[in-house]
Amino acid sequence: MKTLIKLLCVATLMSLTTVCLAESSGNGYGKKHHSKRFRKMDRDGDGKLSKKERQAARKARCEARRKKMRERFDKDGDGELSKVEKKTMRKTMRKRHMLRKFDANKDGKLSEEEKNTAKAAHEAVVKKYDKDGDGKLSKDERKALRADMKAKRQAEKKARREAFVKKYDTDGDGKLSKEEKKAAHQAIKQKMLEKFDKDGDGKLSKEEKKAARKARERRSRGLGAGEDGSDDDFGTPAPPDDDM
């Protein structure tokens, strides 16, 4: 269960990155542009997230995801996951990860070629970190792998943040002014509408907002990034809830 919690916390951190992106660079959006979720996290209402507020938000979302996973796999309803239920959970999560990472044609299954790609990737990781050459990863070797993965995520997060600022920093001063923030918000809003406004009425309905959030969450869980360095394929820190 500890492994699950760690995985869920990593996913949560990535999804929160988009919401905190501008703030953590000193470039937070104005209050009127914050989503409802941001305002909920911003407990002191100062328009930005402090370190303590980000930690509280991550903890709350980790707990919520943990509860959701427990409800999904706790078939006997005893509030805990048995050995069999944990095995089912791990198998399901492993399958989702494999599809997300190696299902190149997005048909919901792995072809022989895709399976071979996955196998080769696994063997490459083992070869890199299997220092004692026994063909498997020991506790210390897995620890080294996790440390490298964490460093890679941090580097990617920094790169996304810098790319986001660079995209909208028209005067090149390394930060977003009030007008640049406004322009960024409008550009993001337009991308949201183009992608999710299925009925073409110029605003997002409740269902369309839900679809946008799900898409962003899928991208963040897959550790993907949009073309402008944001955490999804339509360049958004978070779907605006109020002004669409």
Descriptive key words:
mainly alpha; 8 helices
Task: Note down, in words, how this protein is organized.
By secondary structure, the protein is mainly α. The chain has one domain. It contains 8 helices and no strands. Helix 1 (2-24) runs antiparallel to helix 3 and helix 1 crosses helix 8 (206-221). The longest helix is centred in the middle third of the chain and has 30 residues, at 139-168. It is globular, with a radius of gyration of 20 Å. The protein starts with a helix and ends in a 23-residue tail after the last helix. 20% of the residues are buried.
Q: Major sheet, described briefly?
A: none
> Structural class from helices and strands?
mainly alpha
Fraction in helix:
55-70%
* Rg over alpha carbons: 20 Å
Helix and strand element order: HHHHHHHH
The number of distinct helices, counting runs of at least 4 residues, comes to 8
What fraction strand? under 5%
Q: Gap between N and C termini, in Å?
A: 39 Å
β-strand number: 0
Mean pLDDT: 77
* Morphology: globular
Low-confidence stretches: 1-33, 222-244
